[in-house]
Amino acid sequence: MGAKNPHAQALGSLGGKARAKNLSSAQARKIASKGGKARAAKLSSAELSRIAKLAVAARERKRAEKKK
After folding, report:
1. Do the beta carbons of residue 31 and residue 23 sit within 8 Å?
2. How far is residue 43's CA from residue 45's CA, in Å, rounded to a whole number?
3. Three-class SS of residue 43?
4. pTM of this prediction?
5. How confident is the model at residue 1 (pLDDT cuts 50, 70, 90)?
6. Could you tell me if 22 and 14 are in contact, meaning their C-beta atoms sit under 8 angstroms apart?
7. Residue 60 and residue 56: Cα distance in Å, rounded?
8. How many helices (H) and strands (E) does the chain have?
9. Is 62 exposed, middle or buried (0-12, 13-18, 19+ CB in 10 A)?
């Protein structure tokens, strides 16, 4: 396999940024949600449980700070 063309790589990275700039916030949210769901589908149930526990702990910390 040959070396990658740095000029093509630079143009490729510009494409995503230009596209993102032209998206509405609703479109960006929809794309981000789709990516998040795809990543979550790859996680094991143990990892999902660990993440959920971290989220609950963070929410409880936030509530405790608001009460102060």
Report:
1. yes
2. 7
3. coil
4. 0.49
5. low
6. no
7. 6
8. 3, 0
9. exposed
